[in-house]
Write a structure and sequence with these properties.
The protein is α/β, with parallel strands linked by helices. It is about 40% helix and about 20% strand. It has helices at about 10, 20-35, 50-55, 65-90, 100-105, 115-125, 150-155, 195-205, 205-220, 235-240, and strands at about 1-5, 40-45, 95-100, 105-110, 110-115, 130-135, 135-140, 145, 165-170, 190, 225-230, 250. The strands form 3 sheets. It has an 8-stranded mixed sheet, sandwiched between helices. It has a two-stranded antiparallel sheet with strand order 4-5. The protein has a two-stranded antiparallel ribbon with strand order 7-8. Isopentenyl phosphate (IP8) binds near residues 45, 74 and 78.
C-alpha cells in the first residue's frame, strides 16, 4: 500500500485562481490505476486554496469575524478540486471515497490533535481508495487552522502495510541549489543531516519543498520509502509505485537504510 500526495503545483496552475490542470490530473489518475497498487491519495489545494487562504490570513487562526467568509470560500473551493480528483480517479477505473479533513481531523494550536485513521483503514478493507486533501479545519485554541496534505501524509504513515510515500511535485526532486539556477544538481538521496536538507528547511527556499522534506523525514523515520518525484513527466508516478528505478530524490532516515 502506498501514500500518494498529488501536489497542488502539479494538478493546478498555482498562479491562477481555481485553475485545474485537467490533462495532468487525468494522466496521474491513470498512472495510479495502471500500477495496480493499493493507495491512499492525498492532494494539495493549489490555486483552489492557497490564494484565498492567504487573503483571509487563515494560517494563524482567528483574528476577526471577517475571516469566516474566507474560511467558507476556501472550504468550498478545495471541495470543488476534490470533486475533480474523484472524477479523474473514477474515470481511471479506481473506486475513490472522499475523506474531507474538516470532518475527521481536529487541530490544537496549529498542531494536528486527531485524525480518524480508522476510516482510512476500513475503506481500504472494502476495496476503496481513500482520498483526502489540504483543507481548513477546526482548531480548539485558534478556532481554525490549515491542514496541509503533507501533514495528512505523515499522520497516516503509521498505517499497517505501508510500503512507500510518494510526493508528486512539479520538479524532479531536491536540488543542491535552486532548480532555477544553471547547473544545479539533482540529489538522488538526502538524509536528515544532509547539508542541503537542513539548508532548505532553515532558509525556506520554497515553502512547499520545505514542508515536504520535514514531513517526508517523519515518514522515513518509520522505515518507509519516501520519494519526491516530478509528476509533469509521464510515467514517473507509475514506475515509482511499481518500485522501478526513476529520476527523483529519496529521503532516507539513516545512511545504511
Ligand atoms: O496544498 C493547503 O494544503 P496543501 C490547504 O497540501 C489550504 O499545503 C486550504 C490552503
Amino acid at each position: 500500500m502506498h501514500l500518494i500526495k498529488l501536489g497542488g503545483s502539479v494538478i493546478t496552475d498555482k498562479s491562477r485562481e481555481k485553475t485545474l490542470r485537467k490533462d495532468v490530473l487525468e494522466r496521474l489518475a491513470k498512472e495510479i490505476a495502471a500500477s495496480g497498487e493499493k493507495a491512499i491519495v492525498i492532494h494539495g489545494a493549489g490555486s483552489f486554496g492557497h490564494i484565498l487562504a492567504k487573503k483571509g490570513r487563515l494560517k494563524n487562526g482567528f483574528q476577526g469575524e471577517w475571516q469566516l467568509e474566507y474560511f467558507s470560500k476556501v472550504q468550498r473551493d478545495v471541495r470543488q478540486l476534490n470533486l475533480y480528483v474523484l472524477s479523474a480517479l473514477i474515470d481511471a477505473g479506481l473506486r475513490p471515497v472522499s475523506l474531507p479533513p474538516s470532518m475527521m481531523t481536529i487541530y490544537r494550536d496549529g498542531v494536528m490533535e486527531h485524525i480518524s485513521k480508522e476510516l482510512f483503514e476500513l475503506y481500504m478493507q472494502i476495496g476503496m481508495t481513500p482520498v483526502s486533501f489540504g483543507d481548513v479545519v477546526l482548531d480548539k485554541e485558534r478556532a481554525f487552522a490549515i491542514c496541509s496534505g503533507d501533514h495528512i501524509m505523515s499522520a497516516l504513515s503509521s498505517m499497517k502495510g505501508l510500503e512507500s510515500a510518494v510526493f508528486v511535485t512539479d520538479v524532479n526532486g531536491v536540488y543542491e541549489r535552486s532548480p532555477n539556477e544553471e547547473g544545479a544538481k539533482l540529489l538522488d538521496v538526502i538524509y536528515p543531516d544532509s547539508e542541503i536538507a537542513s539548508k532548505m528547511v532553515r532558509e525556506d527556499v520554497t515553502g512547499g519543498i520545505k514542508e515536504k522534506i520535514r514531513h517526508g523525514f517523519m515518514i522515513a523515520e518509520k522505515g518507509i520509502k519516501v520519494m519526491i518525484i516530478n509528476g509533469l513527466v509521464p510515467g514517473r508516478l507509475e514506475k515509482a509505485l511499481k518500485g522501478e528505478e526513476i529520476i527523483g530524490t529519496e529521503l532516507r532516515w539513516k545512511k545504511d537504510d
